[in-house]
Protein: CoA-binding domain-containing protein
Organism: Stieleria neptunia
Amino acid sequence: MNNLQQFLASKTYAVAGASTRREKYGNKVFRALLASGRDAYPLNPAQDEIEGHRAFRSIADLPMVPEALSIITPPAVTRKVVADAIAAEVQHIWMQPGAEDEQASESARQAGINVIDDGSCLLVLLARM
């Protein structure tokens, strides 16, 4: 199974950078995961609810550790999100285009996490399925 297949085989997901604004990619990724029948949790420290789902400030605030994490944040924020994911022992991280951070990717790989940071987009892959 390749990196993408491993990510998509996960049972639970979190979306860092999920937004209340439907035109933003964080919102689109969150909705796409839900529409594909996946259990997903929105992460956004500034929101209480996104698309009718309780939003969480960080991975540590979730009721469980998600197997997979999609990140749609600026690279400086990505570093903090990845540090939290490493501490929580998330298994898969997909940095969406624009969220990539070389330092964060390297740290996650050293922690044994499956990292997707090649510019591929989860929305494109889910649309093909």
